[in-house]
Write a structure and sequence with these properties.
Blueprint: H1 3-9, H2 19-50, H3 57-64, H4 66-99, H5 102-113, H6 120-131, H7 136-143, H8 157-181, H9 185-193, H10 198-226, H11 230-235, H12 243-254, H13 257-281, H14 284-287
Helix pairs in contact: 2-13, 3-4, 3-13, 4-5, 4-8, 4-10, 6-8, 8-10, 9-10, 10-13, 12-13
């Protein structure tokens, strides 16, 4: 290898790859992303604007038609509910994981990660059995005397929110856990020396330093919940339609590809803007739970 060629691939210190070499190594990754993600999204956006003729009517339908506008708002509201519930349930688990040691820590970690090894369809089907009229939830409520007859739990927004929270909870717990684990124990000892109680140390030390993990988990859960399909399709009702189910309906039943593409375009724009806002607010390493 000549000196000129070597300078293209290595920095002057001879230990680090140059930008050209790094880009060359990453080119297969970029090619795959472009083929399986950017190209299909681009095709959908092209269809939404250009078929049957160049027009913005498909996007106008999403905004002006009250039915489709309600579907979009319902999807966002459901994602907000799922995210809030995941924070409330996930933070105590992540905090306990960060303080546990040995076998207990390993057991809790397995309980958190284990659901990720099973299919979303399987977990959603399990919730459908729990929520049916003769299911375990209704049987338990009647057994303790809370209700005298079965409640309508299945095919409701509540069932969708609960099941989606269960599916997405690990994506909230793990970033918060990483953020909590990065907090040095010296901070808590210093707070105790200064006279802070455990509760005050939690509110003024642990919680503020864990906010990057909470923000990261909230972003992951919220963006994933926006495009959820299986759980709303199996547990929700036609009156509680969400945007992913509406897109599938427009493609498979109505065969209106331009309008379905416009729905995807609106959702993609919303997700992109939200991701950009988060990236400007918090650095990437802070989003991943690292402490500066």
């Amino acid at each position: 290898m000549t000196t000129a060629t070597r300078s293209q691939f290595w920095h002057s210190d001879g230990r680090r790859l140059s930008g050209f070499a790094t880009l060359l190594l990453l080119s297969p990754f970029f090619a795959i992303i472009g083929f399986v993600f950017i190209y299909p999204i681009g095709q959908l956006l092209y269809i939404s604007f250009m078929e049957p003729v160049p027009t913005l009517d498909n996007y106008a339908r999403v905004v002006t038609n009250p039915v489709y506008a309600r579907v979009l708002l319902r999807t966002i509201w459901t994602a907000v509910l799922v995210t809030g519930l995941a924070v409330l349930l996930g933070f105590p688990v992540a905090y306990f994981m960060s303080r546990a040691r040995g076998t207990v820590a390993a057991l809790v970690g397995v309980c958190v990660i284990l659901p990720l090894w099973s299919s979303v369809l399987v977990r959603t089907a399990a919730w459908s059995f729990l929520f049916q009229r003769e299911g375990l939830v209704n049987s338990g409520l009647m057994a303790v005397g809370i209700t005298s007859e079965p409640l309508k739990l299945l095919y409701t927004q509540g069932a969708v929110v609960v099941a989606m929270t269960h599916v997405l909870l690990p994506f909230m717990i793990l970033p918060i856990f990483g953020s909590l684990r990065a907090i040095p124990n010296d901070y808590l000892r210093a707070a105790a020396v200064l006279g802070a109680t455990r509760l005050r140390a939690f509110w003024e030390v642990i919680l503020p330093l864990s906010l990057p993990g909470i923000a990261s988990g909230s972003l992951l859960v919220f963006l994933t919940a926006l495009g959820f399909f299986i759980t709303p399709a199996l547990l929700g009702s036609p009156q509680e339609l969400m945007i992913a189910t509406l897109v599938s309906q427009q493609i498979r039943e109505v065969l209106d590809w331009p309008f379905a593409s416009a729905l995807v375009g609106v959702l993609t724009l919303f997700v992109t803007v939200l991701a950009l806002v988060f990236s400007k607010t918090l650095r990437f390493d802070r989003l991943m739970g690292a402490q500066s």
